[in-house]
Request: fold
Amino acid sequence: MTDALLLESMTIVRVRRETSDTFTFDLDARPRGGFRFAPGQFNMLYAFGLGEVPISISGDPLKPAVLTHTIRAVGPTTRALEALKKGDPVGVRGPFGTPWPVDQALGKDVIVVAGGIGLAPLRPAIYSMLSRRQVFGKLCIAYGARTPADILYDKEIEKWRGRIDVDLEVTVDRGDPDWRGHTGVVTGLLRRFELDAERTVAMLCGPEVMMRFAARELESLGVPAACIYLSMERNMKCGVGSCGHCQLGPSFVCKDGPVYPLTKVEPLMSVREL
Amino acid sequence: MNPESLARSLAQHPFCKDLTQAQVEFLAGCAKNARYDAGEYLVREGSLADALFLVRSGSVAIESHIPGRGSVKVDTLGPGDIIGWSVLLPPFRWHLDARALAATVVFCLDANCLRGKVQADHSFGYAFTLQLLAAASQRLTHARLQQLDVYKAELR
Reply:
């Protein structure tokens, strides 16, 4: 527990603007011999003097020399992180939490359902599956964003879309006159994929209401609830299940999550007080 | 396409999955194949709802024209989707435009023929309307989720 609470300073080596309010930065992990994590895990990032926020790792788990996070600037701490430049230090604690069930998906079809910035925590799982693509069945990715300008990783999405072994669909809730892609909610895409539903593992990340709707749709298509995984979000603070800020019913999201099977969180998702 | 093979391919469409073979054959009496090129309109807002479309392949935008903003797309439909429950609902007018975004192949079900069959055979009418209701319910659910604007930034 001591190590998990110990802050480590890492240096920004690259900053990329993703959308008007979202950015990605790479931290140099070489001085510490690389940063190993499992897809789906998160770190607590500290903007020195201001505060800590839980941010999912969005980089490639096979490239431990660089630690990547994609952050949406919506509050004082994330805005302070947004103001940082190459060469600036950031405090890091982690990695924390449960990973995506990438290994449980071996030999099965996989559907990744991402909404908004929910694509960031799923990207490491996508990298991981693409690195050994042949050991999975179909790989389908459904991604929904608010508008075309809010689409993350657009160049990478185009690259994935160009692969014959990936079936990828992108939709926006609200198009603009130049948008030639799909308009509508991400759940509307799910019926379009030809999956062996009973042998499919689903990984969902996005706003909780989106995940609820998507999980219902997947269940109606025949995907077993035990094979649907969601990344939950609560007010993570300590990262080790000690402070209780992220309590979700009988579990702590920072320690027992953020990735849960639907069977575990479904009863809790309908409890408004949680 | 002869009536038997039309009924066979119609039976493959998700809209028909809960209809009996006899009901699909009955429905096939109203159906024909149609193809639309990219940019071509399947239906125009305000015009007579004279057909129900079951999309087989391609992509169709559901749009409304807003003065000053042009055509605003509210949904994109594809294989397995249906367009046109206005065919059963008076005053039988389209509420939105439907425009092919790519070459699109559909089953086109004649509205007058459909209304006649729904009236003539209430058992078929019930099964057909139930399918229509399921499709409408799914689209309404999607529209509600869209309305929630779930990706809007929230202060954290």
Summary: Chain A touches chain B through 32 residues (CB under 8 Å). Residues 27 and 34 of chain A are 10 Å apart (CA to CA).
